[in-house]
Automatic annotation (TrEMBL):
Origin: domain of life: Bacteria
Family: Belongs to the phD/YefM antitoxin family.
SUPFAM superfamilies, A to Z: YefM-like
Alphabetical list of NCBIfam families matching this protein: phd_fam
Annotated protein name in UniProt: Antitoxin
Task of the protein: Antitoxin component of a type II toxin-antitoxin (TA) system.
InterPro entries per the UniProt record, alphabetical: Antitoxin_Phd/YefM, phD/YefM_antitoxin, YefM-like_sf
Length: 91
């Protein structure tokens, strides 16, 4: 859930905002003079977003993801147990 608040309110409630962002994954858009200026979100969510952007910035990554999804829908996959057996790993 994203909430928009003024910078004045953000100053008053900063500890609460940080707590709710980290525990409840709430996002806060901070406005100054009615304009969006910053976002407060959990560090974990931010890191996850950055990792996703890194993956998707790789040339051809999105196409590969779509191809893999289609193959999975068609049943063209092996299970982890099958892979371990094929690689002769302990199951």
């Amino acid at each position: 859930m994203t909430k928009t608040i003024t910078i004045t309110k953000a100053r008053e409630e900063f500890p609460k905002i940080i707590d709710r962002a980290s525990r409840l994954l709430e996002k806060y858009i901070i406005t100054v003079n009615g304009k969006n200026k910053a976002i407060v979100m959990s560090a974990d969510e931010y890191e996850s977003l950055e990792e996703t952007l890194d993956i998707l910035s790789e040339p051809g990554a999105l196409e590969e993801i779509h191809k893999a999804e289609k193959e999975a829908e068609e049943g063209k996959y092996i299970t982890l147990e099958q892979l371990k057996r094929d690689l002769k790993l302990d199951v």
